[in-house]
Amino acid sequence: GENVEQHPSTLSVQEGDSAVIKCTYSDSASNYFPWYKQELGKRPQLIIDIRSNVGEKKDQRIAVTLNKTAKHFSLHITETQPEDSAVYFCEPGRRALTFGSGTRLQVQP
Amino acid sequence: DSGVTQTPKHLITATGQRVTLRCSPRSGDLSVYWYQQSLDQGLQFLIQYYNGEERAKGNILERFSAQQFPDLHSELNLSSLELGDSALYFCASSLSSGQGELFFGEGSRLTVL
User: Fold this and answer.
1) Which chain B residues are closer than 8 Å to A96 by Cβ?
2) Distance CA B16, CA B32 (A)
3) Using one digit for the tens of pLDDT, what is the confidence trace for A68-102?
């Protein structure tokens, strides 16, 4: 099956700083790379995704970069705000079967 | 609102009992996934159905079973419950089986005492 590693497991930043979370996968056939955000007590929700034919995608303060050769993709959050505090999961499988272990991001005001 | 409905939201039961969790996917979505999330843990894939047929199976215990009905709603049955089964159980749906956004329900929180 797919081996997925997500780092770091916890990340604490000051408001306004940038945060980067990395996800490494093993299945070279993966071609869809989403990131989900789960706020405390809530359901996971898609925040950004990228397909294998592009290397980077941006949506306001959030971006995802993909390196298919090295089999990793990263979530970048700029100008972090307290409401960015949550757990973030990557999911690099082709069939939504394997999520990363999650990164707990804490943005300090 | 994701369009995915899960019931019940909360459930408290005793060890050895059996419970059924229900999920109604988004209108038009054919694929239903079940995940288990224990306290401060990640999302563990249990099982996937696509248009009524089992499509993929994760580390689902033999005490657990699921099905998807002709109207595409799904049920997850958990039997001979143990303390360690206490968790948040999420259902998610997607249009197809494979890549594409997953829409999660609010989850069913199961507490086994």
Assistant:
1) 33, 45, 48, 92, 94, 98-100, 102
2) 27
3) 999 999 999 999 999 999 999 999 877 778 899 99
